[in-house]
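EI: anyone free to look at a 113-residue chain?
SC: sure, send it
EI:
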Amino acid sequence: MIGDRVKKLREERKMSMTELADKAGVAKSYLSSLERNLQTNPSIQFLEKLAAVLHVPMDSLLHNQVDKESLDADWLKIVQEAMGSGVSKEEFREFIEFNKWKLKNQEPQDKES
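SC: here you go
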């Protein structure tokens, strides 16, 4: 949802809702309703103002896309293969969490050797 993306970008930039609303020249109450996904159809002008303050292209507010340019070809291929084979996002996240747990639990054993 657009509101989720706006909130994420705002928080990544360590901005308060008041600060973003003031800098963009928009109503804080409207921004709040957008971030809470109560307002789901903001105007293009509203999004342009937010995008300018957040220093992102407006389409990054509209579309939840992975920046393919930041992925090298091998990672992109792996992600595409996982998606094509039916691996869900949740299954992929579970694997990552399991791998983190496994690595964390192996460290003390390696140090003892």
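EI: Residues 89-112 form the longest helix (24 residues).
SC: 👍
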